[in-house]
Amino acid sequence: MTAPRLEIDLDKIRHNALTLVQRLARHGISVTGVTKAVLGSPEVAGAMLDGGASGLGDSRIENIEVMRAAHVRGPMTLIRTPMLSQVKRVVAGANVSFNTEIDVIDALSSAAGKAGVVHGVVLMVELGDLREGILPGDLAHMVRQVLRLPNILLKGIGGNLACASGVVPDARNMAELSALADTIDASFGLLLQTISGGNSASLDWALSGADTGRINDLRLGEAILLGREPLHRQPIKGLHSDAAVLVAEVIEAKLKPSEPWGDIAQTAFGGKPREQDHGPMTRLLLAVGHQDTDPGGLVPPAGIELLGASSDHLIVRAEKITVAVGDEIRFQPNYAALLRAMTSPFVVKRLTTRAPEMARLCQMARVSGMRNSGRVV
C-alpha cells in the first residue's frame, strides 16, 4: 500500500463528536465541528455532523467551497476574519463569518446585497490571548455600526483563547464574555443567538461544572479529530486518540554509530545535533519529512525513538525490535503534524468507515481523488 499515508477512521471521529456533543449538551452548549485541519474533508465533515455537531467551521473559504461542492449539509461558518479580496466568495459559501473589522463587514454587506442574501456575523472579542478580537471597550461602538448595515445579521459574539499566547479559558474570561453579551442585549434591545466560547481548549472549563453563563457554542477540531485537549495535550477520557494515524515506510535500516563524526555545523533546518554516544544502533530512514508533516509532532510506537528529520527523511532508532526495509511504522500525529500531513500532496489520505452512507462518500472521494491527484485511496 502507498506510503506515506494518513489513515483516518471516520467511525472514531463520529464517536468522538457524539461523545462531546452529549457531554456539552448537559451544559447547554452546542458543538461546531472545525474542519480546517483536514482541509474541509467532506467525509470528516459528514462524520462530525453525524455525531451531532450543529454546524461546521473552517478558517479557509476554499475548504468551505469544497464541502459545498460535495453537498455537505448544515450551516457553515468562516472562523477567520474574511479577507477583503474574498468577500464575494464568503457570502456565497458561508452562512456566517467571524469578524473584527468594520471595513470588512461593510464589504460583506455590499457583497451580500448584490448576491441577494443576508450574511450572518459573529463579532470576535479580545479576551487576552492577543490574536483576533475587538477590545471589550470598543464592542458597543462596533455593534452600533454593524446594526446600521443592510444584508448583515448580527448573530452573536465570540472569543478565542490558548492559540497565540496560551491564555487558559477560565471562569474569569468566560464570565467576561457572558457579561458582554448581556450588556449588548440590554443596550441594543437584542437577543444574541450565538455566544461562542472558544475552541477545544475551552473543554476543561466547560465540563468542570462551572457556571457556563451565556456560552452556548464551542468550536471543536482537535478534541474531535485526535481525542485530546490542547492545553496539556492529554487524552480525553472516553474518546479515541487514534482516529488519525500517519504511516511511513522504511527505506534504510542499518547498524551505525550513534554519534556523527567530522566538523559539526548547522543541520538543514537549523540547530546542531546533540546526540550522546550510545554505541552502535539500528538507525532507520523513513520516507517522510518536514515537507510532509511536523516530525516533532509524531508519537512513535513502543520500541521506536525519534532522532531527527530532514526535508524528506525521518530518522528513528529501533530498540529491541527488528525492522526491515519496506516495513511500515505507524505514528500518532499531534494537531500540527496532522494539519501539515493533510496539506502535503505527497501524503495519501485513506478514509475508512463501516457505516454504509459514509462508505459511499469515501468511494466518491476515491473516484474524485484518483481523477484529480491520485492521492486519495
UniProtKB/TrEMBL annotation:
The protein, known as: Alanine/ornithine racemase family PLP-dependent enzyme
Cofactor(s) the protein needs: pyridoxal 5'-phosphate
Keyword Isomerase belongs to the record: yes
Keyword annotations from UniProtKB, A to Z: Isomerase, Pyridoxal phosphate
UniProt keyword Nucleotide-binding present: no
Domain Alanine racemase N-terminal: 8-224
Molecular function as annotated in GO: alanine racemase activity; pyridoxal phosphate binding
Native species: Denitromonas halophila
GO terms under cellular component: cytosol
